Amino acid sequence: MGFLELLEVASMPVIQVLLISALGALMATQFFDNILSPDIRKALNKIVFVIFTPSLVFSSFAKSVSLDDMISWWFMPVNVGLTFLIGGIIGWILVKLLKPNLKVEGLIIAACSSGNMGNLPIVIIPAICDEKGGPFGARDICRNNALSYASFSMALGGIFIWTYTYQTVKSRSLKFKALEAAEIVKVPNKDFDANAETHLLKDNDSEDTTIQVPTSTYIGDTENQIIVDQDQSNVSKKRESSWHRMVEVMSHLLAELMSPPAIATFFGFLFGAVAWLRNIIIGDDAPLRVIQDSLQLLGNGTIPCITLLLGGNLAQGLKSSSVKPLTLISIIIARLLLLPIIGLFIVRAAANFDLLPVDPLFQYVLVMQYAMPPAMNISTMAQLFEVGNEECSVILLWTYSAAAIALTAWSTFLLWLLS
C-alpha cells in the first residue's frame, strides 16, 4: 500500500471520532437545548459502564479468545505497566522543570502517565479493520482480534488508573487542600498569637517580682513528657495513616476488579478458554446462541455512546483558560510524541526477542497504548477531590485536539512499518 492509502486507512477512524465528538460537544451546549447536560452525561456514562461495555467485552472475548491466546498475551500487562511508569517519570520531570501550582502537579503527572486504554482503542482499533485494504488480514478476524486486544487493554488500564493514578491525584489534591487551609487560618493565628503575647507581657509586668517559684525542673520535666507523648502520638498516627492508605488502595483495586467490565473480561476469558462453555453460546448450533446475539446487540451501542460522551466532557474545557500554554505544550509533547517513541523501541525490541505473538495487529495495539491521550477518568478524580476541575478540562481539551493529528500520524507510520 502507498503512503496516501495508508494515511486514508489511518485517518478515517480518527475523523469518525472527531465528527461524533463534535456532535457530542454541540449536544452539551445551548444550541441543542443542553441535551447532554452533566446529569444526563452521568446517567449515560453509568449505562455504558454497567451494560454496554461489559456486553461488548464479553461477546468479543468469548468469540475470539482461546487459552493459548491468553498465554501469548502475557506481554500486554507488562506493556501497560511500562506506559504508566515511564509516563509518570516524564511527568515528574516536567513538574520539577515547570514548577507549576500544586493544584496542577498531580494533573500533569496523571496526564503524562495515564493514557486512554479503553474508550479510544475500542473505537479506533477495530475501525482500522473495517477499512478496505487494511494490512491486518480478513475484516471479520481482524475486527474480533482488535476488539479482544482493546477490551483486554481497557481492563488492564482501569486497574492501573484506579491504583497508581488515583493515588497520584489524591496525594497532590490533599497537599493542596492542606496548604490552602493553612493560608486561610494563617492571619487569624498571627492575630491570636500577637494578642496572647501582649496579655502575657502585661501579666508579667503586673506580677510581684519578689515571688520566686522554683518550677524550672518541673516545667522541664513536663515539656520532656509532652515531647515524648507527641512523638509517640505522631508514630501511632503515621502507622494508622499508612494502614488506612493501604486499605484504601486495596479497596479501590478490589472495586476495580469487581467492576462490570472487569467481570465481563474474566467470564469472557473463561468462556473462550473452556471449550464446552464456548460451545453453549458460540456457533450456529449453540443452544444458547441467543445470549451471544443479545450481548452483541447491546455492545453495538458502546462506541457511539462513548464518543458522544467524550465530546460532551471535552466541551467543558472551552470555558476556562487556567493552564499556562507552556504547561499544555509540554504535556502534549511528552504524552503524544516522546512516550510513543520510547514505546516503539520497547515493542520492537520485544518483537526482536520473540516475546510477542506473530500477529502484527498485536504490536500495533502495544505501540498505540503509548500514543493515546490522557485517560478521561482523570476528570472524574478531579471532580471527586474537588481540586483542579477547570484545569483538568483544559488539559484534556487541548491534548485530545492535538491527539487527532498525533494518532493519525502514529497510526499511518505503524501501518507502514508493520505491513
UniProtKB/TrEMBL annotation:
The chain crosses the membrane at residues 12-32, 44-62, 74-95, 107-128, 148-166, 253-277, 297-315, 327-349, 361-382, 394-418. It is found in: Endoplasmic reticulum membrane. It is a multi-pass membrane protein. Keywords: Auxin signaling pathway, Endoplasmic reticulum, Membrane, Transmembrane, Transmembrane helix, Transport. The keyword Metal-binding does not apply. GO terms for molecular function: auxin efflux transmembrane transporter activity. The keyword Phosphoprotein does not apply. PANTHER family: AUXIN EFFLUX CARRIER FAMILY PROTEIN, PTHR31651. Belongs to the auxin efflux carrier (TC 2.A.69.2) family. Involved in cellular auxin homeostasis by regulating auxin metabolism. Regulates intracellular auxin accumulation at the endoplasmic reticulum and thus auxin availability for nuclear auxin signaling. This is Uncharacterized protein. It comes from Glycine max (Soybean). The gene is LOC100785791.
